[in-house]
Amino acid sequence: MKQKPIVIGVTGGSASGKTSVSRAIFDQFSGHSLLLLAQDAYYKKSDLPFEQRRKINYDNPLAFDTPLLHDQLEALIEGHAIDRPVYDYKIHNRAEEVVHMEPKDVIIVEGILILADEELRKLMDIKVYVDTDDDIRVIRRIRRDMRERGRSLDDIIDQYLKTVKPSYHQFIEPTKRYADIVVPEGGHNAVAIDLLTTKIRAILAARGLSE
Questions:
Q1: How many Cβ atoms from other residues are within 10 Å of residue 148's Cβ?
Q2: So where does this one cross the membrane (predicted)?
């Protein structure tokens, strides 16, 4: 009988280093089958005009289709494949295509608000909060959004001050209390990554999923 996969939730503020932590886990467990399920893919589809979509607060729990994320994660845990949605940041809307994903031994769920939902938290074996200073995160966000998402500096700063920063303190930072492990400075914290991977190896071994 196939063993239940291990589900790791990695959260933190925008540009906190969640991807670096997730990548560190991938590198440590290359002998296993892994997949990354990004919460960003589950932003709700909107019928609003483009200019109105640009003004949506994307750091609010209401911006996500959390029931769909929950159901698809649960399906993966039960051994079923899913067709994950795709979100297009340039049009601020869900794309038409989907990504087919097969279940794996290790599932990393990454996103700013994955710990805000109790039912989603129940599906996770390990919950990680990446804790990074606000100034560092905003600099990273500016670089990323200008390079990867074609946004202007004024647009990025305006959004950060109006929605990103207030929402972080209202919705995201409070979820730190649900974390099993808090990782300061993201993927640069070698000691925290080592402790995390040691715990993951122990769970995998207990479930007969060792390399």
A1: 10
A2: none
What CATH number does the domain containing 191 carry?
A: 3.40.50.300
Task: Tell me if 18 is assigned to a ligand binding site.
Answer: yes
- Asked if the structure places residue 209 within a domain, the reply is no
Would you say 13 is a known binding-site residue?
Answer: yes
Range of the domain at 197: 6-201
Taking Cα atoms as reference points, which of 142, 129, 196 lies closest to residue 168?
A: 129
**17 labelled ligand-binding:** yes
Tell me if 16 is assigned to a ligand binding site. yes
pTM over 0.85: yes
Q: Is residue 12 annotated as involved in ligand binding? A: yes
Q: Give domain status of residue 1, yes or no.
A: no
In a domain, 186, yes or no: yes
Specify whether the CB–CB gap between 88 and 13 falls below 8 A: no
Stronger pLDDT, 61 or 19, i.e. the higher one: 61
In a domain? residue 208: no
* 14 belongs to an annotated ligand binding site: yes
Residue-wise pLDDT tens digits, 174-195:
999 999 999 987 767 888 888 8
Domain count, the chain: 1
CA-CA distance, 76 to 65, in Å (whole number)?
A: 17
Residue range 128-175, pLDDT digits in tens: 999 988 888 888 889 988 888 778 888 888 888 888 899 999 999 999
